[in-house]
Amino acid sequence: MRIGIMGSGGLGGYFGAKLADGGADVHFIARGAHLEAMRRDGLRIDGPSPLHVRQVQATSQPADVGVVDVVMLAVKLWDTEQALEQIRPMVGPDTTVISFQNGVLKDQYLRAAFDPKQVMGGVGYVATTIAAPGVIRQTGPMQRLLFGEFDGSRSARGEALLAACLAGGIQAELSPAILREIWQKYVFLVGLSGTTTTMRTTIGPIRSNPQTRAFLADVMQEVIAVGRAHGVDLPPDYLRSALERADTVAPDMTSSMHHDLERGGRLEVRWLAGGVVELGRAKGVPTPLNRAIADILALRAEGAAHA
Ligand SMILES: NC(=O)C1=CN([C@@H]2O[C@H](COP(=O)(O)OP(=O)(O)OC[C@H]3O[C@@H](n4cnc5c(N)ncnc54)[C@H](OP(=O)(O)O)[C@@H]3O)[C@@H](O)[C@H]2O)C=CC1
Ligand SMILES: CC(C)(CO)C(=O)C(=O)O
Prior knowledge:
By secondary structure, the protein is of the alpha/beta class. The chain folds into 2 domains: 2-176, Rossmann fold, CATH 3.40.50.720; 180-306, N-(1-d-carboxylethyl)-l-norvaline Dehydrogenase, domain 2 (Orthogonal Bundle). It is 46% helix and 19% strand. The chain is built from 13 helices and 10 strands. Strands 1, 2, 3, 4, 5, 6, 7, 8, 9 and 10 form a 10-stranded mixed sheet that branches. The chain is globular and about 50 Å long. The structure holds NADPH dihydro-nicotinamide-adenine-dinucleotide phosphate (NDP) and ketopantoate. This is 2-dehydropantoate 2-reductase.
C-alpha cells in the first residue's frame, strides 16, 4: 500500500514510521531541518517502544511522490489549507484522504477540497512531539488509530489500511461510528489541552487536585453538551468515560497544545476550546469555561513572538 504522510511531525512521523516498519510503502512529506535529518539519518521514535527506521522516503514535494492509495493528513490545523493544495499531485481518483488532525471541523475542509467520497474519518491517539530534527519523542505507551467510513460501512479500502496498520504494530480499528469517535476524542482533548496549557502542567497533578479535576470535568461537559446539540450521539455516561481516560493515561502526559506553548509556538486553541465556543454559540449552548480557556490563551495563540 502506498501511503503519503502529509506532515511528518509528532503524529504523522510516529504513525508513518510504524507503517513503514510494517512494510508499507510510506512517503513522508516534511520540510526544513526535520526533512534534512530524516533524509540523512532516517526517522527515530524515542519512548516506551523505541524504533529507528533508518531509510525513509522523504520529500517536501508531493509531486515527486505521485499518486498514492492513502494520504494521511497530519499537519497542524493552521497549515491545513496550504497542505490540501500541496497534496493534489498525490491524490488520484482512487486515493483516500484521511485527516488524523484534532478537532471536529477538519473533515469539512477535506470535503470542500476533494470528492467527498474520497474522504474517510480518522482519529489519532498518541502523545508525541518532535524532540529534535529526525526524532519523535513519545510520552506514555498510548498509541491508537481509528478510522472509518462516515456511513458506517466496512469498506475494502478501510480493511486494507487496517491491515497495513496492524502489520506495523499500530493499535488500529475500523470504526462503524467514526463521527462519534471524532467527537469523543474532541471531548477528551479539549479537556486535556485546555487544562494542561492554561495550568502549564501535566495531567497527573490536574486530575489529583479536586478543584482542577472539577474544572477538567466541567470543560468536558460543555463539549458534550455542544456535541449533543449538534446531533452527535454521545453515550449518556460519556463524561465518566472521558474522565476515566484522563485517569488511566500516564501522569506525565500532556497535550500537543501544551508542548506548543512551552516551545513558544502557535496554538490550536482556535479549533479546540475556541471551536467549542463557536459551535456552542451556533446552537445557543453556553460554554463559559471554554471561552475562559480561549481568552486566557489568546495572547499566545499566534506564538510567543506575537504576544
Ligand atoms: N502530537 C500528538 O501527540 C498528536 C497530535 N494530533 C494532532 O495532529 C495534528 C498534527 O500535530 P503534530 O504532529 O503534533 O504537529 P507537528 O508540528 O509535530 O507536526 C506537523 C509537521 O508538519 C510539517 N508541515 C506542515 N505543513 C507542511 C507542509 N506544507 N509541507 C511539509 N511539512 C509540513 C510541520 O513543519 P513545521 O514544523 O516546519 O511547521 C511539522 O513538522 C494536529 O492537529 C494535532 O492536534 C493528534 C493526536 C496526537
Ligand atoms: C490528547 C492527545 C495527546 C491524544 O492523542 C492529543 O491528541 C494531543 O495532545 O494533541
